[in-house]
Write a structure and sequence with these properties.
seven-stranded mixed sheet, alpha/beta, binds D-serine, 45% helix, four-stranded antiparallel sheet
Length: 435
């Protein structure tokens, strides 16, 4: 980092402080992770200088021979990782990938059915403050409030809703849903009402790649994802169609003009539909991350992520916390704090003061606003990357409980912060700024 240090001490100082924050604290935001140095080096490379609008072999710029190689490697690795026929690695983010899904499959005013944001869905799945809710008519399914299915999706109710509104598209995927999805049943509902089925696997992509959760590829017409969360790549997005893609789409692909198949339709929605030049340095970095995810060690990582989340859920339950859905199948634990008399906002702030980073989160049937919330969401991908196992996660829950039991006690928070710093020194992260 010596060039940066000399050229721009102000930004270097920010970076150094951020690295110290990441090194010393506990990162429990479920959508965050720590990438390898190799992934970061590809991102911070001269490929950032290159314009490469178009696709490998069909660019609108000269000098793309190496950009083409990088993008083809990324595409081939993604196909191998997820067992799919077609992939587009150019979306700048998950939201961009999702925009390309709408652009391809929906017309403004069309109706779609997605998981309610307040029940764990995502902004781009129809929130009124997002383009998806502004341009399209969004309808929702949710999770059960009570009973044995509390916190889980009841597929009979999804079917009833789909039959009632006859959506053009049904979306699956979430930012705070702790159970796996029944893709086969979703597909049968989609087929019954003539809807496209779209899975946004942003949160769980790494766990799906590792074969640890149900596989959406054989069932969904289109799958979108981010590449950073459990997949542990650079912050970016991607679109995928499963094996035998045209048949997976379940309909005859439009053949108007020069567009021949669904993959090409999605390609043209990404560029020129809604993006300009792809970020070739990020695409190269995705290729590096996909190679890491293809390694056997990534399966072990995914197993640890899930095991650690289960341990956290059990520990929270033992300490009297209301864990939504009673546990977790993935990397997320969602905690409803209403029985503890503390809001998500207060909890997030108190934990941050102890260098424990979580996010406040709406819980199903929340009575607080999204800026306050009644819950927190915690996740294990980042600290599992640092090597923490069950014993550390048990200790983490004990420390969180200490803070939340007395959230305005500064002495208590300072003491927890000390324990956190002590713990994290045993799991070193990056030392490149200070080395
Ligand atoms: N903002 C991400 C999350 O935290 O889940 C989803 O895009």
């Amino acid at each position: 980092m010596s060039h940066l240090q000399q050229a721009d001490p102000q930004i270097f100082d920010v970076l150094q402080k951020e690295v110290d924050r990441q090194n010393e604290g506990l990162e429990l935001i479920a959508s965050e992770n720590f990438v390898s140095r190799a992934v970061m080096q590809a991102m911070g490379s001269p490929l950032t200088n290159k314009y490469a609008e178009g696709l490998p072999g069909k660019r609108y710029y000269g000098g793309c021979q190496y950009a083409d190689i990088a993008e083809n490697i990324a595409r081939d690795r993604a196909k191998e990782l997820f067992g799919c026929d077609w992939v587009n690695v150019q979306p700048h983010s998950g939201a961009s990938a999702n925009a390309a899904v709408y652009l391809t499959l929906m017309k403004p005013g069309d109706t779609f059915l997605g998981l309610n944001l307040a029940h764990g869905g995502h902004l781009t799945h129809g929130s009124p403050v997002n383009f998806s809710g502004m341009l399209y008519k969004s309808e929702y399914y949710g999770v059960e409030k009570d009973g044995p299915m509390a916190g889980r999706i009841d597929m009979d109710k999804v079917r009833d809703k789909a039959l009632e509104i006859r959506p053009k598209m049904i979306s699956i995927g979430a930012s705070a849903y702790t159970r796996d999805f029944d893709y086969a049943t979703f597909r049968s509902i989609a087929d019954e009402v003539g809807a496209f089925l779209w899975m946004d696997m942003a949160h769980t992509a790494g766990l799906i790649a590792a074969g640890l959760l149900n596989d959406p590829m054989p069932h969904c017409h289109i799958v979108s994802t981010t590449t950073h969360k459990t997949l542990r790549g650079p912050r970016s997005g991607m679109l995928l169609i499963g094996k035998d893609g045209e048949n997976t789409m379940g309909r005859v692909a439009p053949k108007s003009g020069r567009v021949k198949n669904w993959g090409e339709l999605f390609d043209s929605s990404v560029f020129p539909g809604m993006q300009g030049g792809p970020l070739m340095h990020v695409i190269a970095s995705k290729a590096v991350a996909f190679a890491e995810a293809l390694d056997d060690s990534f399966t072990t990582y995914g197993q640890d992520v899930i095991a650690n989340a289960s341990i956290m859920a059990d520990e929270f339950i033992d300490r009297g916390y209301n864990v939504v859905s009673g546990g977790t199948d993935n990397h997320v634990v969602l905690i409803d704090l209403r029985n503890k008399g503390i809001t998500g906002k207060t909890a997030e702030a108190a934990l941050e003061a102890a260098d424990i980073t979580v996010n406040k989160n709406m819980v199903p049937y929340d009575t607080e606003s999204p800026f306050v919330t009644s819950g927190i969401r915690v996740g294990t991908p980042a600290m599992t990357t640092r090597g923490m196992k069950g014993n550390e996660f048990k200790e983490i829950v004990a420390l969180i409980d200490r803070v939340l039991s007395d959230p305005h006690n500064e002495g208590n928070i300072t003491s927890v912060k000390g324990a956190i710093h002590e713990m994290t020194t045993h799991f070193p992260l990056y030392d490149f700024v200070t080395a």
